[in-house]
Amino acid sequence: MELLSAPAGRFPAASFRRRRAGRSAFRCAIAEPSGVPAPLGQKTQYRDGWFAKVFMGLFARKMEKFASGGITTSKGIGDWDYESFVDVSRRVMMGRSRKQQQEAVREVLLSMLPPGAPAQFRKLFPPTRWAAEFNAALTVPFFYWLVGPSEVVEVEVDGVKQKSGVHIKKCRYLENSGCVGMCVNMCKIPTQDFFTNECGLPLTMIPNFEDMSCDMVYGQTPPPLEEDPAANQPCYSSLCSVANPNSPVCPKLQS
Length: 255
What we know:
By secondary structure, the chain is α+β, with helices and mostly antiparallel strands. Helices cover about 35% and strands about 15% of the residues.
């Protein structure tokens, strides 16, 4: 497998000091018997339970409304698998600009919630250290189906050490899509925007395109897109079916 020599996507202005925290005992999908993601060049094997399949189905059916080709399926909520979920994401990306992709995901996220949910979230979780740490703790078990094994880690936000970081060991979404553009436009930017602007709790996501890991930092305001190293990443030329190996930046990341 050809590895990227690009920077790991860290923000030099922020200090992220991580310390291992206790692993969650709650697992809704299993990534190999040891719980350790497969090495680079190998795909991690998952055995998804009903919880994971229900969430895949919920997200995929919402995303189908934005997918190109107007193709819909008659699958039930629990009949989806992860490959089908990623395929729907890819069809949402096709034929859309970077901004349009991000807006489509925003609409999907809002459609998953009852009316007024973001406003209620702001009341329940004002941007405090407690709220940041609580949401980091929830992320590990409830988003296992989407991103794979992760753990709560200690980070430094505005000079304060707190356990509001989540280290994703090898992102399942990036591993299965093999697409830098999908990672940034369909996950990183919309998720950051949703928590920061819709819910009022700042979130920064820092993908590492060298090992496919990712750090989520609740309480950390994300940088403008033009200052974000993730917006200047080249394609995974050996993994992405629509990669342009001659371009210094993934075409899907360009305006």
